[in-house]
Automatic annotation (TrEMBL):
<dbReference type="InterPro" id="IPR037465">
    <property type="entry name" value="YlxR"/>
</dbReference>
<dbReference type="InterPro" id="IPR007393">
    <property type="entry name" value="YlxR_dom"/>
</dbReference>
<protein>
    <recommendedName>
        <fullName>YlxR domain-containing protein</fullName>
    </recommendedName>
</protein>
<dbReference type="InterPro" id="IPR035931">
    <property type="entry name" value="YlxR-like_sf"/>
</dbReference>
<feature type="domain" description="YlxR">
    <location>
        <begin position="8"/>
        <end position="80"/>
    </location>
</feature>
<dbReference type="Pfam" id="PF04296">
    <property type="entry name" value="YlxR"/>
</dbReference>
Length: 86
């Protein structure tokens, strides 16, 4: 059976999953935004919605690389809050 949504790769654990199962983080003109709807334009990265994957992505530098932006504590907190509450 074919999946309806595209497959994306988590920048943390590297798992390939349905796009809708992943949390999109986007660099929108220099602002890092969490984009649950997947509609914000800009350079995006995908994460499984859990803190382990966020931590892995930070530790490997994968999120920074994907978004071409340093991940500050503020950004980290914003993403982790979205994971916890979103
Ligand atoms: Zn993951």
């Amino acid at each position: 059976m074919q999946s309806r949504s595209p497959i994306r790769k988590c920048v943390g654990c590297g798992a390939r999953r349905d796009k809708i199962e992943l949390l999109r983080v986007v660099n929108n003109k220099g602002d890092i935004l969490v984009d649950p709807g997947g509609r914000t334009p800009g350079r995006g990265a995908y994460l499984c919605p859990n803190l382990d994957c966020l931590d892995q992505a930070i530790e490997k530098g994968a999120l920074k690389k994907a978004l071409r932006k340093e991940i500050s504590d503020e950004i980290y907190t914003k993403i982790s809050e979205e994971i916890k509450h979103g």
